[in-house]
Design brief:
Blueprint: H1 2-16, H2 22-34, H3 37-54, H4 58-78, H5 82-100, H6 104-135
Helix pairs in contact: 1-3, 1-4, 1-5, 1-6, 2-3, 2-5, 3-4, 3-5, 4-6, 5-6
């Protein structure tokens, strides 16, 4: 669902050529450099909210909001991985660039791929503790 919503938001934003503001991108990169996970989560959410707002479609914004309550709670696990942290903002930059260029197809594709990768990273990050518990004989 998130991939579809993010893809649609990016497509619509590209149609309006309204890219997320530079301040959002700068905040995300600064948080990543500092290693401040709470700031990274806040900046990531701000980026996605900026894309939803740039879509010009309030229904997209309202539909995405409930998903972010869960995503925010789980992002701390994903953001423990340094390479994943940097990749997130590289992906955001590519999405913002496509939106700013008015390239709706690329913006949508990149946003969908970003959401899919985020889901895979999240699954991997959350599986590690379960695997450790299973290795210790805890099957609960």
């Amino acid at each position: 669902v998130r991939g579809a919503l993010d893809g649609l938001a990016a497509r619509l934003a590209a149609g309006r050529r309204t890219a997320p503001v530079d301040a959002v991108m700068q905040a995300g990169r600064a948080a990543t450099r500092s290693g401040d996970v709470a700031a990274m989560i806040t900046a990531d959410l701000a980026f996605h909210q900026a894309v939803y707002a740039a879509s010009g479609n309030p229904l997209v914004e309202r539909s995405a909001a409930p998903h972010w309550c869960q995503i925010r709670r789980a992002m701390g696990a994903v953001l423990q991985d340094g390479p994943a942290r940097a990749a997130i903002w590289d992906e955001h930059a590519a999405i913002a660039e496509a939106i700013g260029a008015g390239d709706a197809d690329t913006a949508e594709r990149l946003a969908r791929e970003h959401a899919e990768r985020a889901g895979h990273h999240l699954g991997a990050a959350l599986a590690v503790p379960i695997t450790r518990l299973q290795a210790q004989g805890d099957t609960a």
